[in-house]
Amino acid sequence: MTSSVNAMTQGNKDDSKLIMPTGEIAQFPILDGTLGPSVIDIRSLYGSTGSFTYDPAFTSTASCESKITFIDGDKGVLLHRGYPIEQLAEQSNFLEVCYLLLEGELPTQENYKSFYDNIIQHSMVHEQIRNFYSGFRRDAHPMATMVGVVGALSAFYHDSLDIHDPRQREIASHRLIAKMPTIAAMAYKYSVGQPFVYPDNALGYAENFLHMMFSLPCEKYKVNPVTASALDKILILHADHEQNASTSTVRLAGSSGANPFACIAAGIACLWGPAHGGANEAVLNMLREIGHKDRIPEYIKKAKDKNDPFRLMGFGHRVYKNYDPRAQVLRKACHEVLNELGHKNEPLLDLAKELEKIALEDPYFVEKKLYPNVDFYSGIIFQAMGIPSSMFTVLFALARTVGWIAQWKEMIEDPQMKIGRPRQLYTGYGPRDFVPLNKR
Length: 440
Ligand code: CMC
What we know:
- Helices cover 48% and strands 6% of the residues.
- The protein has helices at 45-49, 85-91, 94-103, 109-121, 129-133, 142-152, 166-192, 205-214, 225-238, 245-255, 260-271, 279-290, 296-304, 325-340, 347-361, 363-367, 375-384, 392-412; strands spanning 4-6, 15-19, 25-31, 39-40, 69-72, 77-80, 83-84.
- The strands form two sheets. It has a four-stranded antiparallel beta sheet with strand order 1-2-3-4.
- A hairpin with a 2-residue loop joins strand 6 (77-80) and strand 7 (83-84).
- Helix 10 (245-255) packs across helix 18.
- The radius of gyration is 24 Å and the shape is globular.
- Residues 244, 275-277, 279, 303, 311-318, 368, 370, 373-375 line the site of carboxymethyl coenzyme *A (CMC).
- Carboxymethyl coenzyme *A binds at residues 244, 275-277, 279, 303, 311-318, 368, 370, 373-375.
């Protein structure tokens, strides 16, 4: 069965027409956004033609309307509420970006103070949450622990589970942003067998996380301001990225009316995959495995070999067909941070730069428009900060929590929200009669 889409001609120029194999013509409005490609609104397709569209990995499908983040993948542009990511990374701070993503505008000084105070108030977790950690093996991946503990929050904060109450939604959002650093640092402390460290609300958001990661009861960790400011920048760069896999997971989970803690746990589970947030850990493992510049050609060859599952980690993106703007900022930050922290001659950074140079000149990567993505340089900075590689994706989750919440909130506040329910192209058996076990 074939059909053709004619988006411009016939009748109203603002409509698209689908010519079905029967000759029947179905007409669909074209909706324009403020930026980016228009979309063909096919919501009436099934009702009018009895057919579904088929787009398994959503390569051509807009799953929602959103006002939060815009990406132009061809030009390498990323805007949050209209503000370019480069400006936010240079001039803003993570909590201000959180406010921007959630509320739609930059905060006034007064707004910022009250938002900051709210977040600070929620930085501790219920004391019994500590017990959850001891149920995990010490060698569990911290992302596995995160999925469990964040999911468990809904068992502790019953007063913020009513998704139809705007105040409860707000409290749940603030709790999640405030508690993620605490929960993440606890996952790390548990994995290394050290006691948990309580948050210190006199410290800034990134500083507090570093304090909870590295302080000991017998020795307080002195947070290096260079490290704290680099971490804050990394958090900004990871805060949101429109309808990526984990965000779409959060939206789909939330569309059933599930509570926000459960939705964010689902997002964390999705983010962990190596094709998504798990790539930052995979990049460092890959660089360590390559080990020396002389071995780069061997790995480039493997990445191009269709019979080898190996991919160059930290390269390529579904949307960016140009340099990921976040990777540009990180590449620069990487040099600054490493210099300031005294890692001037970090061999992994040299190796990464050489790998990037060779890949960007290779016809395979050029033709497929494969550029470094946000995960390519972040691991090198994390490593210089003393953060173990198993925590890299946890930091991504910590930063992305605000994006997930902002997107979840936008969806819940949309009066047209319905449960998400994709359809399928069924290719299994037709109806057949059951054969009892003794006759098979
Ligand atoms: N190394 C080698 N070849 C690649 C790579 C890579 N990193 N990425 C894509 N390709 C090839 C792929 O084999 C395919 O070739 P062909 O057309 O001949 O079959 C072509 O490029 C298109 O790739 P795709 O898998 O169809 O593209 P996608 O949009 O489905 O996948 C991606 C995007 C990010 C999953 C993929 O580029 C990838 O696996 N990259 C490595 C993992 C990574 O760095 N992930 C982090 C993504 S950014 C942060 C985030 O989202 O969390």
